[in-house]
Amino acid sequence: MQTFSSSTSIAAPREIAWEVMTSHELYARWTPSSRVDLEIEGSPEPNGVGAVRAFRTGPVSTREEVTVFEPPHRMVYRVLSAPLPIRNYRSEMMLVDDDGGDSCQLHWDSWFDVIIPLTGGILRNLMASAVAKMAAGIAEEAQRRAQSA
Hints:
Blueprint: E1 2-10, H1 14-21, E2 35-40, E3 52-57, E4 60-70, E5 74-81, E6 86-97, E7 104-114, H2 120-148
Antiparallel strand pairs: 1-7, 2-3, 3-4, 4-5, 5-6, 6-7
């Protein structure tokens, strides 16, 4: 099993970071995906448990399902299908208040198995880089919203 983690400081309250972090349509800004569609709505919110998100890049897509949705603290998702030789991919995203509540930390932990031996390191680095870019995008958008509030 391959694992990687990311921790990102966000100069915005956790509630604002949560809104950004769970808004599927924003992810197209921070990924190579041309668009991100909500194929199935979740519960109790559209991006909640059971939501299936499709990250589309041309004819290729990665589909994810939200499996845990605990506002405004924790979201877990799993990859249903991806154009990479991986299986059993799962990520947990947690928002933790910094002192005072005016800022927070996004902790993003991921696990997956490789299908092709000896590709774990390359795939781990590739996906860790993508997660870091998405986390930075979440932080920037949340901070922008907090400043304009």
